[in-house]
Amino acid sequence: MSTEVRQQYPPTPQKKQKKYNQRTRDRISGYLYISPFFLLFGVFGMFPLIFTAYLSFHRWNILGEREFIGFSNYIGLFTNDPLFWKAVGNTFSIWALSTIPQLFVALVLAFILNQAFLKGKSFFRLSIFMPNVTSIVAVAIVFSAIFGTQYGIINYVLSLVGLDPINWKGSYFGTHVAISSMVMWRWVGYNTIIYLAGLQSISKDLYEAATIDGANKIQQFFYITIPMIRPIIIFTVLLSSIGGMQVFTEPLLFGVGSDSQGLTMTLYLYQEAFERFSFGYAAAIAWVLFLIIMIVSLINLIVTRRIKST
């Protein structure tokens, strides 16, 4: 038998060049596909971040020339501005009153909506998410009527049982409770839907086995539900903490109060920039707020990871 031996020649320079050009075109086309994201991020994300950092070292009222003043904005913010520290305290107070109960209530509601005996689940799921898509202006009008000092619904109910009315817009407690209630009412449905999605991934065999062993619904909630969706809980805690540090619309519409008891960090930033036209000082507030959010997020992440490891 004769065998045919084929001689393999190395690729010619023209073939190498063609293969190289095709690979280059593939890479360029890939970068072009993802370029819109980076362009939008650069224009609306990275540039404002860098420009705000640059502006925080200047004195500028947006009309005149920018004057470089170094760290004077930051020094004045930390040493000569008690209103800023009041805004920081108000923000943390409103965050604690709204975020912690909000996440717990959302988890309980998700657990209830996930039960097999509940009828009309689609209606309840849609209803509980409606506050999140409702206009915040309409929400503020409704809650202003609920927490009104003279003709508010809550004060009317208190008068029926012989209790004195509460000055919701004139006291720290009243203002913080009212704003926290607005935040909680708006976002509890959003977190409920997230928790509900996590609950539906848990095998029902676990609950059936727990029921056979004699565990009631409360025990199932604490010993099955919470451990199984712990990563989702960590996610909502971080997301709610970041959002809680940036509360703006609710105190703006409800009112900061006579003693600035409703003033938050973002609202103070807005006042400095667009009411007093002190854009350099507002930029410094923005960066301090960014650092505070980073610290709060890291603390939450460390605490939740330690809880997860125990």
TrEMBL record:
<dbReference type="Pfam" id="PF00528">
    <property type="entry name" value="BPD_transp_1"/>
</dbReference>
<feature type="domain" description="ABC transmembrane type-1">
    <location>
        <begin position="88"/>
        <end position="300"/>
    </location>
</feature>
<protein>
    <submittedName>
        <fullName>L-arabinose transport system permease protein AraP</fullName>
    </submittedName>
</protein>
<keyword id="KW-0813">Transport</keyword>
<feature type="transmembrane region" description="Helical">
    <location>
        <begin position="92"/>
        <end position="113"/>
    </location>
</feature>
<keyword id="KW-0812">Transmembrane</keyword>
<dbReference type="InterPro" id="IPR035906">
    <property type="entry name" value="MetI-like_sf"/>
</dbReference>
<dbReference type="InterPro" id="IPR051393">
    <property type="entry name" value="ABC_transporter_permease"/>
</dbReference>
<dbReference type="GO" id="GO:0005886">
    <property type="term" value="C:plasma membrane"/>
</dbReference>
<feature type="transmembrane region" description="Helical">
    <location>
        <begin position="220"/>
        <end position="242"/>
    </location>
</feature>
<dbReference type="GO" id="GO:0055085">
    <property type="term" value="P:transmembrane transport"/>
</dbReference>
<keyword id="KW-1003">Cell membrane</keyword>
<comment type="similarity">
    <text>Belongs to the binding-protein-dependent transport system permease family.</text>
</comment>
<keyword id="KW-0472">Membrane</keyword>
<feature type="transmembrane region" description="Helical">
    <location>
        <begin position="31"/>
        <end position="57"/>
    </location>
</feature>
<feature type="region of interest" description="Disordered">
    <location>
        <begin position="1"/>
        <end position="20"/>
    </location>
</feature>
<feature type="transmembrane region" description="Helical">
    <location>
        <begin position="279"/>
        <end position="303"/>
    </location>
</feature>
<dbReference type="InterPro" id="IPR000515">
    <property type="entry name" value="MetI-like"/>
</dbReference>
<keyword id="KW-1133">Transmembrane helix</keyword>
<feature type="transmembrane region" description="Helical">
    <location>
        <begin position="133"/>
        <end position="158"/>
    </location>
</feature>
<feature type="transmembrane region" description="Helical">
    <location>
        <begin position="178"/>
        <end position="199"/>
    </location>
</feature>
